[in-house]
Amino acid sequence: MIAPVVPTEAGPPPIVELRDVSVRYATRSGLLARRTADILAVDRVTLAIERGRTLGLVGATGSGKSTLAQLVMGMVQPTSGSVVVAGRELRDLRGRDRQDIRRLVQVVLQDPFSSLDPRMTIGDIIAQPLTLGRRVGGTTGRQIRDRVAEMLGFVGLDPSRSERYPHQFSGGQRQRIAIARALAPRPQLVVLDEPTSALDVSVRAQILNLLKGIQAELKVTYLVISHDLVTVGYLATDVAVMHLGRVVEHAPTATIYRAPRHPYTMELLASIPGASGSFLRRPRPLDVTPESLPAAACGYAYRCTLRTFLGDPGQCLTSDPPLIEQEPGHAVACHFADDALRLATESLRPAP
User: Fold this and answer.
1) Residue 139 pLDDT level (bands cut at 50, 70, 90)
2) What Å distances lie between residue 338 and 38, 193, 252, 260, CA to CA?
3) Where are the domains of the chain?
4) Domain 16-243 falls in which CATH fold?
5) What's the whole-model pTM score?
6) Which residue blocks in 155-200 are alpha helix, DSSP H?
């Protein structure tokens, strides 16, 4: 397991640290709603997001990406482990301190058509984070209006349109409004949950360039959640790959895309349009299903192409590999990471 990043004299501490965090959801059934089983959404994740950088979180639907983002935003409490944001443990915060953290962490959601209240003007929408909880902190109405105008101009919209409603704007403009709302309280971290997936292809590039420009100017930190590895590759400085609630690979973006060491990462990269699909045509294991895996097995063993390539080594079914550093800054949860790199070199083209 990777140890949490420890601040040194060389730089500030990370904006976010997750320390051996797990989240379990109880499931209930029957007339008396008896507890029947637990769903493990996040499994022993240790991760840090450095200030001013962008962490891309990728993985299939149900891999735990959104739950991990909710942990960072304080919307979900961990079953075990701890979440530290801006140097403060979220579990210990109450009242005003929790409100302060919520101002430091803002979110831009996937669908701009549903994330904006249709009954509010866009000026009121952008001003909402400044006045939420009736704690303006001495800010006057004029200062709030000036801040709204500043944010609209910052994202490329005319401040004179602040009295209009969301339905009077296009999808790309609505996403710009959502970005302006997130930036209004001067956050240190912005969670981007599929920020361009609901937009036309021609608009996506504009929004991505806007986000890059905002980060360069404001030095804000991003956590990007996306299924689109091209989007993640453009925005992110670091990438964490999740599978069944665990981080199975974590490294700088260039390293992940050029020299992946986990077979699931390789599968995702082989799915990028324009990449060689030869890896996806390699044989998979035939002897197990996810349900029949031994409790101690690697969670990816049921579909691991690398396992077949290596002749079905028994270690995959008897030992769940921990996330360990194979080289500085590159952590992988695989017993055969070096063999995976060799297979990737043979099967994958360089990622776009």
Assistant:
1) low
2) 35, 32, 18, 10
3) 16-243, 259-347
4) Rossmann fold (3.40.50)
5) 0.88
6) 171-183
